[in-house]
Design a protein that fits this description.
heterodimer, A: 299 residues, mainly alpha, 69% helix, globular, B: 252 residues, 25% strand
């Protein structure tokens, strides 16, 4: 209710008496806060549940032999996944070296030069590629690399994973670059800095942390992929240091062991899954820390 | 040293909309020239035509002739070459957020391939001195980001950044509109000193500011230059009725 009886000459805004906050509103406030917390718990629960279960099932089989030896033949106890751990790292390194530059390059194109029909086409194709089943990407890499080289290889596996990384990286890079204010680009142009220099040294640099988030997302997503490696990297029971030979990968080894009829192999599959998750979390955390280390105060 | 600017029959467009109509003006070297006028009258578009910033906007175009010193701006000069000689300070302070204070000032030179450490140190020092910021930032040149400074400091950082590439002309697009009176005072003082070495063109909404810092003033209205004369004359005895109406506050 407006109350203009007091001080009406000096005060232009009519005074109103605000009613006290009702019980209903206080209850709603509490309830909504509780719902928000609950949803957070629901989102985090599966993650922790999976991790806890992996630790429970897998930690018992992780020992020095598991981390340093190759698989033993069927029937023999012991052995490990050392070759698969290294193989996964090699394949992921190849995938990153091929996929990250293409992804970031495509993202730069989309954000800085792609505000037109051609850009729309690239965006559409990229979104479609993101939805292509991973096994189909594996077939493509099979056709592109394996058929030509006449044998399975880490390179073929890396190519398959790289193809899967590109659309994710491209679209996140585009979004992150678009968040950089036009004023920052203009500041660089105003200093006589050329357009390509501005894009690389100013725009991309300003968006670095966001771009890295996109890269890590793509990396974490392909790190656990199995289907595209089935007929590209193929897997290997022995050490192999050549990128043009069949190469073991953790996800493949987990797959093979999990569908086997042996209890020992099942336990090793759990251990492999745990190692794989730790490797992914470790890699993402390491990159995050490295990036934070290079950031200035107040940036 | 500063150089003069001559503009002949300049028209500027955004797509099909014409923003500037047949602008003719001669700016004297080593003087400050103020451009005043109501919002949307084309002042900013005009100074953005002087360093070819206008054309960075999609579908924007320009015709006419602009000469800065011996450079023909729209004929045979690359935009990047030109902009190294014509510095610009923008309305909102826009330091590079991920760079240190030092790197912000050195950016123009470094990104153009200048790598001599010792000379860079000296230029950064002198530029920050010239923009009256040195004493406030000298202890954390490399540790703090340009974005961590206050608004007024950021704007002086942007001025230092523009000065570091040693331009002959400095364009200022409402450099004080986002600043408090104390920071504004500092920047006006700065303009006074900078005139000795640079030709300054400043867009401002603040008529007192134009009167304080500039020897010449141009009045823009609806994309046309209505009057261009000595500042004193514009504010005390303008020839055009519309200028008089504007400077006496009857409209705009």
């Amino acid at each position: 209710m407006p109350d203009t009886s007091s001080n009406s000459t000096a005060v232009l805004i009519p005074q109103v008496s605000v009613p006290p906050i009702s019980l209903r509103r206080r209850v709603t406030d509490r309830a909504m806060t509780a719902v928000a917390i609950l949803t957070v718990v629901l989102v985090l629960l599966p993650l922790f549940a999976i991790f806890a279960y992996l630790v429970y099932k897998g930690i018992g089989s992780i020992n020095l032999a598991f981390l340093t030896q190759t698989p033993k033949p069927v029937g023999e106890a012991g052995g490990g996944m050392a070759n698969a751990i290294v193989g996964s790292m090699v394949i992921l390194a190849i995938a990153s070296v091929l996929g990250v530059p293409f992804g970031i390059g495509a993202g730069i194109f989309l954000s800085e030069y792609g505000r037109n029909r051609y850009g729309d086409i690239v965006r559409f194709v990229s979104d479609v590629l993101n939805g292509v089943p991973s096994i189909v990407v594996g077939i493509v890499a099979y056709g592109l690399v394996v058929m030509r080289q006449k044998h399975f290889s880490a390179l073929a596996g890396g190519v398959a994973l790289a193809i899967m990384m590109v659309p994710t990286i491209a679209r996140t890079t585009e979004q992150m670059l678009l968040l950089v204010p036009q004023a920052i680009r203009e500041a660089a142009y105003g200093l006589g800095v050329s357009r390509w220099r501005t894009t690389l040294s100013i725009t991309l640099r300003t968006a670095t942390s966001g771009v890295i988030t996109g890269v890590m997302l793509a990396f974490a997503r392909v790190a656990g992929e199995t289907a595209p490696l089935l007929f590209t990297a193929f897997g290997n029971q022995f050490w192999n240091w050549r990128t043009d030979q069949p190469t073991a990968a953790l996800s493949l080894q987990i797959f093979t062991y999990a569908i086997s009829p042996f209890d020992e192999w099942h336990r090793q599959a759990w251990a492999g899954a745990l190692v794989l998750i730790i490797l992914i979390v470790g890699a993402v955390a390491a990159v995050r820390i490295a990036v934070r280390h290079g950031t200035l105060a107040g940036a | 040293m500063g150089v003069g600017i001559t503009v002949e029959h300049l028209n500027a467009f955004y797509g099909k909309t014409q923003a500037l109509f047949d602008i003719n003006i001669a700016v004297l070297a080593n003087h400050a020239t103020a451009l005043i006028g109501p919002s949307g009258c084309g002042k900013s578009t005009f100074i953005r035509c002087l360093n070819r910033m206008h054309e960075t906007i999609p579908e924007a175009r320009v015709d006419g002739a602009v000469r800065i010193g011996d450079l023909s701006v729209y004929n045979g000069t690359s935009a990047t070459q030109l902009r190294r000689r014509v510095g610009m300070v923008f309305q909102k302070p826009n330091p590079f957020p991920t760079m240190s204070i030092y790197d912000n000032v050195a950016a123009g030179l470094k990104l153009n391939g200048f790598r001599k450490r010792k000379q860079l140190d000296e230029i950064v020092h002198k530029s920050l001195n010239a923009s009256a910021l040195w004493d406030e930032v000298k202890d954390h040149l490399h540790k703090k980001s340009g974005a961590s400074l206050s608004g007024g400091q950021q704007q002086r950082l942007c001025i230092a950044r523009a000065l570091a590439v040693q331009p002959e002309v400095l364009l200022m697009d409402e450099p004080c509109s986002a600043l408090d009176p104390i920071s504004t005072g500092k920047i006006e003082e700065l303009i006074f000193q900078l005139k000795e070495q640079y030709t300054i063109v400043i867009v401002t909404h603040n008529m007192q500011q134009a009167a304080r810092v500039a020897e010449f003033t141009g009045f823009f209205l609806l994309g046309k230059m209505i009057e261009f004369d000595k500042t004193e004359k514009i504010f005390t005895n303008p020839s055009d009725k519309r200028t008089e109406d504007y400077v006496t506050g009857r409209f705009g």
